[in-house]
Amino acid sequence: MSRDEGESTAASILEGFTAQMREIAEASQRRVQLTASGTAARGRVTVTVNADGVVISTRFAADIGELTYQEIAAAVTAAAQQATEEVQRQSRELLQPLRDRRAKMPRLSELIEGMPELATRAPIPPASLAPPQARERLAQYTEPAPRFSNAVDYDEWSSDQANRGATDSSW
User: Fold this and answer.
1) CA torsion, ordered 118, 122, 127, 132, to nearest 10 deg
2) Residue 51, in any domain of the structure
3) What is the separation of C-alpha 134 from the centre of its chain, rounded to a whole number of angstroms?
4) Taking a C-beta distance cutoff of 8 angstroms, is the pair 17, 51 a contact?
5) How many domains does the chain divide into?
6) What is the pLDDT of residue 67?
Protein backbone atom coordinates (compact mmCIF):
# COMPACT_ATOMS: atom_id res chain seq x y z
CA MET A 1 0.00 0.00 0.00
CA SER A 2 1.41 3.36 -0.98
CA ARG A 3 1.63 6.27 1.40
CA ASP A 4 -1.21 8.09 -0.42
CA GLU A 5 -3.47 5.03 -0.16
CA GLY A 6 -2.67 4.71 3.55
CA GLU A 7 -3.46 8.37 4.17
CA SER A 8 -6.67 8.06 2.16
CA THR A 9 -7.71 4.99 4.17
CA ALA A 10 -6.89 6.72 7.46
CA ALA A 11 -8.89 9.80 6.40
CA SER A 12 -11.82 7.60 5.44
CA ILE A 13 -11.73 5.78 8.79
CA LEU A 14 -11.52 9.09 10.66
CA GLU A 15 -14.43 10.51 8.67
CA GLY A 16 -16.53 7.42 9.42
CA PHE A 17 -15.62 7.60 13.10
CA THR A 18 -16.56 11.30 13.26
CA ALA A 19 -19.92 10.62 11.59
CA GLN A 20 -20.61 7.75 13.96
CA MET A 21 -19.78 9.88 17.01
CA ARG A 22 -22.16 12.57 15.73
CA GLU A 23 -24.92 9.96 15.32
CA ILE A 24 -24.27 8.61 18.81
CA ALA A 25 -24.54 12.13 20.25
CA GLU A 26 -27.81 12.76 18.41
CA ALA A 27 -29.26 9.42 19.52
CA SER A 28 -28.19 10.13 23.09
CA GLN A 29 -30.01 13.48 22.98
CA ARG A 30 -33.18 11.76 21.76
CA ARG A 31 -32.81 8.94 24.31
CA VAL A 32 -32.70 11.24 27.35
CA GLN A 33 -36.11 12.59 26.33
CA LEU A 34 -37.74 9.15 26.44
CA THR A 35 -40.36 8.34 29.06
CA ALA A 36 -42.78 5.46 29.49
CA SER A 37 -45.69 4.74 31.78
CA GLY A 38 -47.03 1.53 33.23
CA THR A 39 -50.35 0.88 34.93
CA ALA A 40 -51.52 -1.72 37.40
CA ALA A 41 -54.45 -2.57 39.66
CA ARG A 42 -56.94 -2.00 36.83
CA GLY A 43 -55.64 1.49 36.15
CA ARG A 44 -55.58 2.64 39.77
CA VAL A 45 -51.77 3.05 39.75
CA THR A 46 -49.73 4.72 37.01
CA VAL A 47 -45.96 5.03 37.20
CA THR A 48 -43.83 6.97 34.69
CA VAL A 49 -40.08 6.45 34.32
CA ASN A 50 -37.36 8.28 32.44
CA ALA A 51 -34.92 6.75 29.94
CA ASP A 52 -32.79 5.37 32.80
CA GLY A 53 -35.79 3.61 34.35
CA VAL A 54 -35.96 6.05 37.27
CA VAL A 55 -39.47 6.78 38.53
CA ILE A 56 -40.38 10.38 37.75
CA SER A 57 -44.12 10.27 38.46
CA THR A 58 -46.56 8.11 40.42
CA ARG A 59 -50.30 8.71 40.20
CA PHE A 60 -53.16 7.02 42.03
CA ALA A 61 -56.77 6.96 40.85
CA ALA A 62 -59.50 8.35 43.06
CA ASP A 63 -60.57 4.85 44.12
CA ILE A 64 -57.07 3.79 45.32
CA GLY A 65 -58.47 3.58 48.86
CA GLU A 66 -60.27 0.37 47.90
CA LEU A 67 -56.88 -1.40 47.85
CA THR A 68 -54.86 -2.52 50.85
CA TYR A 69 -51.39 -1.09 51.45
CA GLN A 70 -49.90 -4.39 50.30
CA GLU A 71 -51.94 -4.29 47.07
CA ILE A 72 -50.89 -0.68 46.45
CA ALA A 73 -47.23 -1.55 47.01
CA ALA A 74 -47.44 -4.51 44.63
CA ALA A 75 -49.24 -2.37 42.03
CA VAL A 76 -46.61 0.39 42.22
CA THR A 77 -43.85 -2.19 41.76
CA ALA A 78 -45.63 -3.85 38.82
CA ALA A 79 -46.40 -0.53 37.12
CA ALA A 80 -42.79 0.64 37.53
CA GLN A 81 -41.44 -2.61 36.08
CA GLN A 82 -43.87 -2.39 33.16
CA ALA A 83 -42.83 1.22 32.47
CA THR A 84 -39.15 0.32 32.67
CA GLU A 85 -39.58 -2.56 30.20
CA GLU A 86 -41.29 -0.18 27.78
CA VAL A 87 -38.64 2.55 28.03
CA GLN A 88 -35.93 -0.08 27.51
CA ARG A 89 -37.75 -1.27 24.39
CA GLN A 90 -37.92 2.31 23.13
CA SER A 91 -34.19 2.77 23.80
CA ARG A 92 -33.30 -0.44 21.94
CA GLU A 93 -35.43 0.67 19.00
CA LEU A 94 -33.83 4.12 18.96
CA LEU A 95 -30.28 2.73 19.13
CA GLN A 96 -30.78 -0.22 16.74
CA PRO A 97 -29.54 1.67 13.63
CA LEU A 98 -26.28 2.39 15.48
CA ARG A 99 -25.94 -1.28 16.46
CA ASP A 100 -26.61 -2.36 12.89
CA ARG A 101 -23.94 -0.03 11.55
CA ARG A 102 -21.44 -1.12 14.20
CA ALA A 103 -22.08 -4.78 13.33
CA LYS A 104 -20.93 -4.07 9.76
CA MET A 105 -17.67 -2.52 10.93
CA PRO A 106 -14.58 -4.63 11.65
CA ARG A 107 -14.01 -5.43 15.30
CA LEU A 108 -10.94 -4.13 17.06
CA SER A 109 -9.75 -7.72 17.45
CA GLU A 110 -9.85 -8.06 13.66
CA LEU A 111 -7.70 -4.95 13.18
CA ILE A 112 -5.14 -5.56 15.91
CA GLU A 113 -3.62 -9.00 16.16
CA GLY A 114 -3.93 -10.52 19.62
CA MET A 115 -6.56 -8.03 20.82
CA PRO A 116 -9.22 -9.90 22.83
CA GLU A 117 -12.89 -9.68 21.87
CA LEU A 118 -14.03 -7.34 24.64
CA ALA A 119 -17.79 -7.78 24.20
CA THR A 120 -17.60 -11.47 25.07
CA ARG A 121 -15.01 -11.14 27.85
CA ALA A 122 -17.27 -9.67 30.53
CA PRO A 123 -20.95 -9.87 29.61
CA ILE A 124 -23.20 -7.94 31.96
CA PRO A 125 -26.17 -10.00 33.21
CA PRO A 126 -29.52 -8.26 33.61
CA ALA A 127 -30.38 -7.06 37.11
CA SER A 128 -32.91 -9.05 39.09
CA LEU A 129 -36.43 -7.69 39.50
CA ALA A 130 -36.96 -9.73 42.66
CA PRO A 131 -37.60 -7.93 45.97
CA PRO A 132 -34.62 -7.47 48.32
CA GLN A 133 -35.08 -10.62 50.43
CA ALA A 134 -36.53 -12.88 47.72
CA ARG A 135 -34.95 -16.32 47.23
CA GLU A 136 -34.06 -15.46 43.63
CA ARG A 137 -32.02 -12.45 44.75
CA LEU A 138 -30.40 -14.21 47.71
CA ALA A 139 -29.41 -17.14 45.47
CA GLN A 140 -27.11 -14.76 43.58
CA TYR A 141 -24.96 -14.49 46.70
CA THR A 142 -24.36 -18.20 47.27
CA GLU A 143 -20.80 -18.00 46.01
CA PRO A 144 -18.47 -17.66 49.00
CA ALA A 145 -16.35 -14.58 49.42
CA PRO A 146 -12.74 -14.96 48.28
CA ARG A 147 -10.23 -16.11 50.89
CA PHE A 148 -6.60 -15.03 50.97
CA SER A 149 -3.97 -17.56 51.99
CA ASN A 150 -1.18 -15.02 52.42
CA ALA A 151 -3.02 -12.64 54.78
CA VAL A 152 -1.30 -11.77 58.05
CA ASP A 153 -3.09 -10.83 61.24
CA TYR A 154 -2.57 -7.15 62.05
CA ASP A 155 -1.47 -7.75 65.66
CA GLU A 156 1.13 -10.27 64.50
CA TRP A 157 2.36 -7.91 61.77
CA SER A 158 2.57 -4.87 64.05
CA SER A 159 4.58 -6.75 66.70
CA ASP A 160 7.13 -7.59 64.00
CA GLN A 161 7.34 -3.90 63.09
CA ALA A 162 8.18 -2.69 66.61
CA ASN A 163 11.94 -2.78 66.08
CA ARG A 164 11.88 -1.43 62.56
CA GLY A 165 12.65 2.16 61.78
CA ALA A 166 14.95 4.40 59.77
CA THR A 167 17.99 2.83 61.47
CA ASP A 168 16.90 -0.74 60.78
CA SER A 169 19.49 -2.73 58.84
CA SER A 170 17.04 -3.49 56.03
CA TRP A 171 17.16 0.16 54.97
Assistant:
1) -150
2) yes
3) 22
4) no
5) 1
6) 98
